[in-house]
Design brief:
This protein is α/β, with parallel strands linked by helices and 339 residues long. It contains 11 helices and 15 strands. The protein binds ligand AHE and zinc ion. GO terms for molecular function: S-(hydroxymethyl)glutathione dehydrogenase [NAD(P)+] activity; zinc ion binding.
Length: 339
C-alpha cells in the first residue's frame, strides 16, 4: 500500500471524469501523477520496502526475460509492457480484485493502475518507479505522466538532435516539456504554437525561438510554418489531442525527412487523416505513450538529474492546493489568468 503525498492533474483525469470516454469505468478513483511513499508491501514483492519513495507509472515494466516488450533486443524499442494491460484496463489489480470499496462495501474501480486521488492506494510492483530517498514528492508527481511524456517524446521517440528545428503544438505542461527537452538537446529553432498568446512567455523562457498564434493568420498554420522555413520543420509534436492539429503538425514536417509525433490523446472515436502524398514525400507519422520511458528503470534517473541540477522541473508547479490531512496537491503549469 502506498501513501500518496502529492498529485498533479492530467487532462486524462478530467476527460475520464467527464464521462465521455466509453472505456471509463465507474465508480473509480482517478489520478495517475503522484509522489508516494510505500506504507506496506504484499507477499512476494522484492526490491520495495516501507518508506521507499515511489512514482506510480501507468506503463508497467515487468522486465521478465520472456517479455519481448521489456527484454532486449526487441524490448529496447518500446516501453509498452503488456503484462497487466487487461486487468489495468478493467480497473482491477493483476489478481482481478479491486482494493477499494465505498462506505457500504461496494467495489470502486482502480484507474490506469494508479488511482492516486486518494490518501492511500495499491499499485502493482511492476508499475513502481522507486526514486531516491531524498526525492521531493511534489516534483515526483510531475513525472508520472505529462512532463515525462513531453521530455521522452523528444529524447526517446523522435530522438531530436542538436541543430534541428522543432515545432510544438499546444503549450500545456506536455508542450512545455517538449520545448524544454528540445532546448536541452540543442535544437536550433523551436516553434511554439498556441491560440492562447499568454502561454508564449513561459515558452520563450524554456527555449522557444518563434511563437506563433494560428489566429493571427488567415491560412492553415501548416502553410504558415512551411512558409517560415521553406521546406518545413524537422520534428513536430502534437500536444493537444485535437486531430486537426495532429494533421497540421504532420503537414508542417520537413519534406523528405520530417517526423511528427502524436502525443495528445484524442477524444474517443476520433480519427486522423492526411493526403498520402505527405508520407510519399518523406514525412513520418508516429506516436508516443509515456514518452517511451520504461517506468522502473528510466524514470528514477530523471529525478536523479533533477536533484543534481541537470533537469529543471520546479517551473511546472505554479499552484498548490492543500489536500486533506495535510496532503499536497501540486498543480501543473497554467497561465495565471486561468486561476
Ligand atoms: N483509450 C483511448 C486511448 C487512451 C490513451 O491513448 N492513453 C494514453 C495515456 S493517457 C495519459 O494521460 C496512453 O499512453 N495509452 C497507452 C496504453 O497502453 O494505454 C482510445 O482512444 O482508445
Ligand atoms: Zn496523463
Amino acid at each position: 500500500m502506498w501513501e500518496v503525498h502529492s498529485n498533479a492533474l492530467c487532462h486524462t483525469d478530467i476527460y475520464t471524469l467527464s464521462g465521455q470516454d466509453p472505456e471509463g469505468l465507474f465508480p473509480s478513483i482517478l489520478g495517475h501523477e503522484a509522489g508516494t511513499e510505500v506504507e506496506s508491501v504484499g507477499e512476494g514483492v522484492v526490491g520495495l520496502q516501507p518508506g521507499d519513495k515511489v512514482i506510480p507509472c501507468y506503463t508497467p515494466q515487468c522486465g521478465e526475460p520472456d517479455c519481448i516488450f521489456c527484454f532486449p533486443p526487441r524490448g529496447k524499442r518500446t516501453n509498452l509492457c503488456p503484462k497487466i494491460r487487461g486487468t489495468q484496463g478493467g480497473g482491477v489489480m493483476p489478481d482481478g480484485t479491486s482494493r477499494f470499496t465505498d462506505a457500504e462495501g461496494k467495489e470502486i474501480k482502480h484507474f490506469m493502475g494508479c488511482s492516486t486521488f486518494s490518501e492511500y492506494t495499491v499499485v502493482a510492483d511492476i508499475s513502481c518507479a522507486k526514486v531516491s530517498d531524498s526525492a521531493p514528492l511534489d516534483v515526483c508527481s510531475l513525472l508520472g505522466c505529462g512532463v515525462s511524456t513531453g521530455l521522452g517524446a523528444v529524447w526517446n521517440t523522435l530522438n531530436v538532435e542538436g541543430g534541428s528545428s522543432v515545432a510544438v503544438f499546444g503549450l500545456g505542461a506536455v508542450g512545455l516539456a517538449v520545448i524544454q527537452g528540445s532546448q536541452m538537446r540543442g535544437a536550433a529553432r523551436i516553434f511554439a504554437i498556441d491560440t492562447n498568446p499568454k502561454k508564449f512567455e513561459i515558452a520563450k523562457e524554456l527555449g522557444a525561438t518563434d511563437c506563433v498564434n494560428p489566429k493571427d493568420y488567415d491560412k492553415p498554420i501548416q502553410q504558415v510554418l512551411v512558409g517560415m522555413t521553406k521546406w518545413g520543420i524537422d520534428y513536430t509534436f502534437d500536444c493537444t489531442g485535437n486531430t486537426e492539429v495532429m494533421r497540421a503538425a504532420l503537414e508542417s514536417a520537413h519534406r523528405g525527412w520530417g517526423e511528427s509525433c502524436v502525443i495528445g490523446v484524442a477524444a474517443a472515436g476520433k480519427e486522423i487523416s492526411t493526403r498520402p502524398f505527405q508520407l510519399v514525400t518523406g514525412r513520418k507519422w508516429t506516436g508516443t505513450a509515456f514518452g517511451g520511458f520504461k517506468g522502473r528503470s528510466e524514470v528514477p534517473p530523471l529525478i536523479d538529474a533533477y536533484e543534481a541540477g541537470r533537469l529543471k522541473l520546479d517551473h511546472y508547479i505554479t499552484h498548490r492546493f492543500q489536500g486533506v490531512e495535510g496532503g499536497q496537491w501540486g498543480c501543473r503549469w497554467m497561465p495565471k489568468e486561468q486561476d
